[in-house]
Amino acid sequence: MLRSSHALVALLAVALPTAISAATPQSFKGEYTVSFLGLSVAKATFSSHYEGDTYSIDGSVSSAGLATLFDDTRGTISSKGRISGKQMQPQAFRADYKSGKKASVVDIRFGNGAVTATQVVPPPKKRNPKNWVPLDSSDLVSVLDPMAATVIHADSLDKVCGRTVKFYDGEMRANLTLTYDSKGSISVPGYKGETVTCRMGFEPVAGYRKGRKALNYLKKRSRMMVTFAPVGQSGVYAPIHATVGTQIGTLTISAGRFEATE
Length: 262
Hints:
Elements: H1 2-13, E1 22-36, E2 39-52, E3 54-63, E4 73-84, E5 87-99, E6 102-111, E7 114-121, E8 132-133, E9 152-153, E10 163-168, E11 173-188, E12 191-206, E13 208-209, H2 213-220, E14 224-230, E15 236-246, E16 249-260
Antiparallel strand pairs: 1-2, 1-16, 2-3, 3-4, 4-5, 5-6, 6-7, 8-13, 9-15, 10-11, 11-12, 12-14, 14-15, 15-16
């Protein structure tokens, strides 16, 4: 159950509206639906606030539709930190989930650009050293939490793709690579305009079991596409639509609302 909670954090973090720097306070709101084979399986709402060089993000996620019959998961996510130049510098990330009667927590603390503490409740089971790739302290330097990992600061749509993001979810460290695919446009409540789509690659680095089929599929076979749109005039681009190919079908994440609230 803990791993499914981690997966939900990572998946829904792909749909996160945010901004980098605000001369005056700015707030944004995004509402998203996750669907599988045309059926809604999860929903998420995020509210973010930016003032000066600080940011804070609060969100709620829940399973929806038929998914509630198999895994009724509900929870909250929060992230806060500072902004240095064009870089997000997380200070704290926390996800609290309850699946049925089982509760789980992921709490990550940062300092001086690196992870300083991680708390996972319930703790992960003992790992088999024969097939487990352990985390090293060097793996946790200059990494982003699941929320900050999807924020792209760029000078234009043309420069959004073509980068690698270091991602840490409380157990696994992975690299997410963005490669240019195409340009387009989209219209949703709160935003109408140009977008850019990047193909996303997934490379596990540490904190995972070698030979795990789901990870191997994401790394070698999955087609993952993320469409970004600008958030106001902030110079930041955030996901507004995404598709993730899995072993049993394609998950689609779509924004139902993507707007500035101040």
